[in-house]
């Protein structure tokens, strides 16, 4: 839900910069890296997963400049991963997150997202203001406004619906028709 509402209190570039800063962490030597809590490798893995979600589920947040920033970061992460492995820093729980982030980024750029049947990107130019709590301290799911939850679920389901390609829908309809005969 964060990536659906962050625009109410922060810019895309600020959020991206903070996420990248979290990935980089403080400069550490091999011993300090192993002793950090949580390990920097786990933090990096989590950051890569967050970026995969953000880029794949909210592609419209990424204009040309943001895509260049993401491309530069994925290259940096790939190089950092190689350096860490060469220097003997074990990143066993990272599980190739940088490689997955890079491949997802390239695939999503080639494919696009949230495209209608007429190949026009669906953008909402005048959305209603989000209904968010004054303070997030101690907020539970039940404290969230039901209208805002409905809006966010509708947006998510709309994006999923728009990613269905006509060819895929036709193929599935044909399979169902053949099975029922």
Explain how this protein is built:
With 181 residues, this protein is an all-alpha fold. It folds into two domains: 1-112; 114-181, no CATH class. Helices cover 61% and strands 0% of the residues. It has eight helices and no strands. The chain has helices spanning 2-5, 12-24, 30-35, 40-57, 64-86, 97-111, 146-162, 166-180. Helix 2 runs antiparallel to helix 4 (40-57), helix 4 (40-57) packs parallel to helix 6 and helix 5 runs antiparallel to helix 6. It is globular. It starts with a helix and ends with a helix.
Provide the fold topology.
Blueprint: H1 2-5, H2 12-24, H3 30-35, H4 40-57, H5 64-86, H6 97-111, H7 146-162, H8 166-180
Helix pairs in contact: 2-4, 4-6, 5-6
Strand proportion: under 5%
List the helices and strands in order. Answer: HHHHHHHH
User: Rg from C-alpha positions?
Assistant: 20 Å
State the total count of DSSP E strands. 0
What structural category arises from helix and sheet content? mainly alpha
**Main β-sheet description:** none
Catalogue the unreliable spans: 114-121
The termini sit apart by: 43 Å
Estimate nothing, just give the exact number of structural domains: 2
What is the typical, i.e. mean, pLDDT? 75
Oligomer: single chain
- How many separate helices? 8
Helix content: 55-70%
């Amino acid at each position: 839900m964060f990536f659906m509402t962050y625009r109410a209190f922060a810019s895309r570039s600020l959020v991206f910069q903070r996420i990248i800063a979290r990935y980089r962490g403080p400069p550490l030597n091999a011993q300090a890296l192993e002793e950090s809590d949580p390990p920097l490798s786990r933090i990096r893995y989590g950051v890569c997963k967050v970026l995969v979600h953000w880029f794949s589920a909210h592609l419209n947040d990424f204009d040309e400049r943001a895509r260049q920033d993401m491309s530069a970061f994925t290259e940096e992460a790939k190089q950092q991963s190689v350096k860490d492995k060469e220097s003997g820093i074990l990143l066993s729980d990272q599980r190739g997150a940088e490689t997955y982030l890079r491949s997802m980024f390239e695939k999503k750029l080639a494919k696009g997202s949230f495209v209608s049947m007429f190949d026009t990107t669906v953008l909402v130019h005048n959305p209603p203001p989000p209904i968010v709590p004054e303070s997030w301290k101690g907020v539970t799911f039940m404290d969230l406004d039901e209208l805002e939850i409905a809006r966010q679920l509708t947006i998510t389901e709309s994006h999923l619906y728009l990613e269905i390609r006509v060819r895929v829908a036709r193929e599935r309809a044909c399979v169902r028709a053949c099975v029922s005969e």
